[in-house]
Every structure is written in structure tokens, then in C-alpha cells.
Design goal:
By secondary structure, the chain is an alpha+beta fold. It has helices spanning 25-35, 39-53, 58-78, 118-124, 224-231, 415-419; strands spanning 2-10, 19-20, 132-140, 143-152, 157-166, 170-176, 189-194, 199-203, 206-207, 214-216, 244-249, 256-261, 266-270, 275-280, 287-292, 299-304, 308-313, 321-325, 330-335, 342-347, 351-356, 364-367, 373-378, 385-390, 394-399, 406-412. The strands form seven sheets. A four-stranded antiparallel β-sheet has the order 1-3-4-5, with no helix packed on it. The chain has a four-stranded antiparallel β-sheet with strand order 6-7-8-10, with no helix packed on it.
Length: 420
């Protein structure tokens, strides 16, 4: 089965023509050494075992070996293989005149599109200033990868520019532009949450990269029950202990990244120090959605499978918070950037809620779909234009400008196949 598990747009104009990573022999040997014993060693071990095992059978095969040796001698004589290396190596090229071309195709008058070796390769991977980048986390049976698409509306282009191999399913992706090694530099990074408890940060301006630039959290899978038995108390663990389900980058405080996890917690990461700044333990079930406020730098929203949506002041999230109790497991939460006092939430029963943070109950509520609403998107230019997507591949467009839900379009799309 092939499907797209996560996707995000990259801000136009920030992507540069990527650099292709080339691995030399020493780096390759180091990678293989980290993977464990190589095939040659295992073959040598199996070879030694076979040698011991077959000691008693050597005499049995001697006659057959002699017969094959006589056949080899006859072939050598027949084709004069003994003098093979002494033959004249000079090539006869008289009959290839009709195939003669030009040293480079730049000199060929019949070619309208010229390329010149390495320059051609650079042109193929060039990213133009008016290119849009769409990043998709893709799962194909047991293989997971990150596909970077180029979309250019003016030229009508849409194609995969390059991809990156991943070790686990990319559950969520979030673009960010903060470099912990140089806070003033402009970077093109992507944070990826997977079924593992850590977060990988990849450089989208590198091609053929085999590992992320940075990792947030421990890369060792932790057995909490075993640790509790050994320590006699509940262990304090930095980062998450289960899958990372959602990510949100703080564009106002660029060194802060929030992550939501199946371990029922939210972690605020200090990217400058590459470590956990705060852990929020408010929900009683896995946290599936998290998003920073578009205007208030310290305001964070989260949605959980305990059927609650929570609003925090990250400077003191334990006391400065507000909670809305809803009907079903929350799938997505989203701020309305054109009306920053309002946000939307969707659940696994197909319901969408419009909530004003100044009120205790939803302003509007609608049974939008028959099953889980896993996708919400609000237009950043057209006020009140909302798109919702469901697991049954039905997409609906709504007008919520008047703070109620008015459906204006519906269609059933095979979105994954169309996107690929």
C-alpha cells in the first residue's frame, strides 16, 4: 500500500538549489561499521564452517576436478587464450566515420537545447525564485521517504525534485528556518515526527543525505516499567516516550518548537540549546494536535483523544490555561489567522467546531462528515474559506465568514493518487 501520511508547503523563495551529498570510501566504511558485521566477514565465517564440514568429501571430488581441468586445457588451445594478451590492441575505426559527431554538443548545429555535462546537472536541480515546494511524507509498504515536489504555476510544472529515505513513518512534518549553530543564517529545515519518540530535523537544501542534521530527544527506546522497577519511582525522562503525532513551529519566537505525542504530553523544545524547555502534562490521552497562535507568541492550542481542547500561556502552562470539553476524540485544531480570537477543531466522528476563546462553548458546530475529519485548511487570503477532508476521500468547502457553516462545494477525490 502506498499513501501520503503528512505534507506541508515550504515558504516561497527560501529554498536554494540543493547541494548533492557525495559519500567517499572512508565515510561508506564507517556507515557499514556502524551497521554491524559486513557480509564478507559473515561469508568468511560460513566458509570456514563449510571447510571443516567438507574435509571428508575432498577425495570424492578429485576425479571430477581432473576432468574439468582437461576440458579447460582444450578450450585454451582451441581459442589460443595463452596468447590473448599479446594480440594487437589497436582499434580499427575506419568504418566509424559516419558516427563521428562533435567533441561537445555545444558545437552541434542541429541541437536546439544544449547541455554541457555538469552544468546540465545543475540546471536539472535548479530551484527558481518563483518555485513553490511541497513536502510529502510517503509510505510505500515497508519503505518510508520524504518527497520534495516543485510546483510552478506560471510554467505549469509539478514534479518530484528529490527525495530522502526515512527510517520510520513520517506522521507529521513542520518547516522551520532556525539553525542552532548559526542563529542569523537563513536555512531550509524540516522537522519530522515519526512513530519513534524523537524528532528528526533534515536540511531540504541537501540531496542524497542519509541522516538528519539534528535530533531532538533520546534516540533510545525507553522501557518505563523496567526503569520504574529499578528506580522504585516514576522516571523523569526528557522528551517523549512514544510516537510524535504533531508539530508546531513558533514563527514569533523562532527558537521554539512544540511537539504533541501519544505519551499524553506536549514538549516545548529550545532549538538554540537543542533540548527540552518545558513539558506540559495536561491531557489524559494521546495528544493529536498542537498549534501556536499566529499573533500571541506565548499562546498554544492543543487537542487530545480525551475529547478536550486546551489553551495555554506557555510562560506558565500549569495555571494559565483554559479547557473546552467536547464530544469526541480531537483530530485537528487550527487558528483562524484572519480572526485570531477564533479557532477550529475536528474530531473522529466527523464534527467540526468553531470556538471563540472568549466563550466557554463553541460558537458553531456541524456534523460535516460521516467519519474522522483528518484535514482542515483555512485560506490566508479569502476570509472564512474553509476546506475539510475526511478519511472516505470526501472534500468539502465551507463559508464560515458569518461564524456558521455554509457548504458551497463537495467532491469525492482520490487525493493520494492524484497527488502522485
Amino acid at each position: 500500500m502506498r499513501f501520503i501520511s503528512s505534507m506541508t508547503w515550504v515558504k516561497k523563495g527560501v529554498s536554494k538549489t540543493p547541494i548533492r551529498i557525495k559519500i567517499d570510501e572512508n565515510e561508506m566504511k564507517q556507515l557499514f561499521s556502524e551497521m554491524g558485521p559486513n557480509e564478507e566477514e559473515s561469508e568468511a565465517e560460513s566458509g570456514s564452517e563449510n571447510e571443516i564440514k567438507n574435509d571428508g568429501d575432498i577425495s570424492t571430488h578429485e576425479d571430477k576436478n581432473n576432468e574439468s581441468g582437461n576440458e579447460t586445457d582444450n578450450i585454451d588451445k582451441k581459442y589460443n587464450l595463452d596468447n590473448y594478451d599479446n594480440e594487437d590492441d589497436e582499434l580499427k575505426l575506419e568504418q566509424l566515420n559516419s558516427l563521428a559527431c562533435f567533441p561537445t554538443n555545444v558545437d552541434d548545429a542541429f541541437l536546439t537545447k544544449k547541455d554541457d555535462g555538469e552544468d546540465s546537472d545543475e540546471e536539472d536541480i535548479e530551484i527558481k525564485p518563483n518555485d513553490n515546494l511541497l513536502v510529502c511524507g510517503t509510505v510505500d509498504d515497508d519503505d518510508s521517504s520524504l518527497n520534495i515536489f516543485v510546483y510552478n504555476e506560471e510554467e505549469g510544472d509539478f514534479y518530484i525534485h528529490h527525495d530522502l529515505l526515512l527510517s520510520s513513518v513520517p506522521v507529521c512534518v513542520e518547516w522551520l528556518d532556525f539553525d542552532p549553530t548559526d542563529t542569523d543564517s537563513a536555512v531550509n529545515y524540516l522537522a519530522i515526527g515519526t512513530m519513534n519518540p524523537w524528532i528528526e530535523i533534515w536540511d531540504l537544501d541537501l540531496m542524497d543525505s542519509l541522516e538528519p542534521e539534528f535530533t531532538l530527544g533520546s534516540t533510545k527506546k525507553i522501557k518505563k516499567k523496567k526503569m520504574k522497577a529499578e528506580l522504585g519511582k516514576k522516571p523523569k525522562i526528557a522528551g517523549h516516550t512514544d510516537a510524535v503525532l504533531d508539530l508546531s513551529y513558533n514563527y514569533l519566537n523562532r527558537n521554539i518548537l512544540a511537539s504533541a505525542s501519544a505519551d499524553k504530553t506536549i514538549v516545548l523544545w529550545n532549538l538554540e540549546e537543542m533540548k527540552q524547555a518545558t513539558k506540559i502534562k495536561n491531557h489524559k490521552d494521546r495528544v493529536q494536535a498542537v498549534e501556536f497562535h499566529p499573533v500571541e507568541a506565548f499562546t498554544l492550542l492543543s487537542g487530545s483523544c480525551d475529547s478536550t481542547v486546551a489553551l495555554y500561556d506557555c510562560r506558565n502552562p500549569k495555571t494559565n490555561k483554559k479547557i473546552w470539553k467536547l464530544e469526541s476524540d480531537i483530530e485537528r485544531v487550527m487558528w483562524n489567522k484572519l480572526e485570531p480570537n477564533y479557532f477550529l477543531s475536528s474530531d473522529d466522528e466527523g464534527t467540526i467546531n468553531l470556538i471563540d476563546i472568549r466563550n466557554d462553548k463553541p460558537v458553531a458546530c456541524i456534523k460535516a462528515h460521516d467519519s474522522s475529519v483528518c484535514g482542515l485548511s483555512l485560506s490566508s487570503k479569502v476570509p472564512g474559506l474553509l476546506i475539510s477532508a475526511c478519511e472516505d476521500e470526501i472534500v468539502k468547502i465551507w463559508d464560515i465568514k458569518s461564524h456558521n457553516f455554509e457548504k458551497i462545494y463537495e467532491d469525492k477525490l482520490k487525493t493520494v493518487k492524484n497527488l502522485n
